[in-house]
Amino acid sequence: MPQEPTFADMSEGRVIPSIHFGSESRAMHPTRTVVRRLAPLALAALLLGISLGIACQAGGQASAPAEGDSVPTVAVTAAASSEGDGESGVFHDEIIFGQSAAFTGAARFLGTGMRLGIEAAFHEANQSGGVYGRHLVLETLDDAYEPNFAAANTKLLIENRKVFALIGAVGTPTSRMAAPLTHEAGVPFIAPFTGAEFLRDPELGNVLNLRASYYQETEEMVKRLTEDLGVTRVGVLYQNDSYGQNGLDGTTLALERRGLKPVASGHYERNTSAVKSAVSQIMEADPEAIIMIGSYAPVARTVELARREADPLFMAVSFVGSRALADALGVQGEGVYVTQVVPQPEDNSIPVVARYHAALSDYDARAEPGFVSLEGYLAGRLAIAGLEACGRALSRDCFIEALQTSEPIDIDGMQLKFGPQDNQGSDEVFLTVIGADGEYRQVESLVVAK
Fold it and tell me: pLDDT tens-digit profile of 67-111?
């Protein structure tokens, strides 16, 4: 069974996640920002102390960061520009959201993509005067896709920065550490970039998932493999943590519903691309298809190694980071399938995608549309819908209740529906395939695609 990493002492020369407080909206609605470089030992002590406290509370152990990187710059926003309005993160002229995500390391493209989309949505709202006169601000912390940094960051955002809500967390193992802290504090946990099943528990009343689950993504994969092509021999590559285990469980359950089971499975360690042993183990079973629950670098390496021996059909879940995967695969990407949970980000004939294009271009004219930043944009729009439903008298309780009990939320034609026992807004899963040009196209059937 996958295990979370054990604690090891931080030392000089190891990664300390960067801290960035503030967003583009500060430029339009300025407050003073102080940028300073903290002494390595001081910053290490800060994060180490918080991590140790969290580990003791959770009965677990914290992990040390990987070796090799220097201590990054820390940007700290000065105090908010006005007195609070009675709810943490809510001021007369601002609402502060927090995000802990990967902005360095193997999953950095996911964190930067989610942040880009959220900030594009917030910028769009701020350009129109904000929400009931309040501008939206996003404050971010880098957790490098490491669970205990995510927990430390979450505590900092809630207790020190006193944000109104957390939005756009990236990953299952990181969310597994962060979500309980937000639940205990009564802080909304909005649109995490993960399809983890534990976040679909209706008892987590503060969690609002935007996307379909990994169980739904793997069900779609197995359905298409078995119904379209008659595939019965499926191998699974998975990341050795709660994310990978969740995807493996979803695949296994989908196969069991059809009287099948994985012919082989193999795992690799998070934040590495050490998949050679796992691929060898899977290929010995002669799979017709390999379902991959991982991030882009190890998944790309898996395709490369497996194709030296045979040519099974490859499928990956949305968390892989679609653009990064296609770029990493290059000419080897043709015919690799990825399930998606948002529409095609280039198809501006879809109203919500056209709106996203306009918002993205206005925020950053150099930014290219992508699946991840589109999901971030939708996350920002979901948060805005909750704020608008509450009016000027904003509270966390009102925000959560407004989204959970509303009629379907229409985001330019995309329908999101929550309920008292349903904290997931969308059930949509789209199957895409990489073409010879390195671009993704949506397909309805594996038969048509081939």
Answer: 233 333 333 333 334 445 678 999 999 999 999 999 999 899 999
Give the pair of three-digit tokens for residue 33.
């920002």
Q: Is the dihedral of CA 380, 385, 386, 391 positive or negative?
A: positive
Q: Is 365 exposed, middle or buried (0-12, 13-18, 19+ CB in 10 A)?
A: exposed
Based on its alpha-carbon atoms, the radius of gyration of the chain, rounded to whole angstroms, reads: 21
What are the distances in angstroms from CA 161 to CA 65, 350, 377, 394?
Answer: 23, 37, 23, 18
What pLDDT score does 154 carry?
98
pLDDT at 85: 62
Q: What are phi and psi of 268, to 5 degrees?
A: -135, 165
CB 65 within 8 A of CB 14: yes
Give the start-to-end residue ranges of the domains of the chain: 1-211+343-419, 214-340+429-449
Structure confidence by residue, pLDDT tens digits, 337-369:
999 999 999 999 999 999 999 999 999 999 999
Which segments of 129-218 are extended strands (E)?
Answer: 135-142, 165-167, 189-190, 207-208
For 103, 315, 424, the CA distances from 194, given in Å and listed in that order, are 16, 17, 12
Q: Which stretches of 74-220 are assigned E, i.e. beta strand?
A: 74-77, 94-101, 135-142, 165-167, 189-190, 207-208
3-state secondary structure of 48: helix
In CATH, what number does 1-211+343-419 get? 3.40.50.2300
Q: Which fold has domain 214-340+429-449?
A: Rossmann fold (3.40.50)
pTM metric for this prediction? 0.83
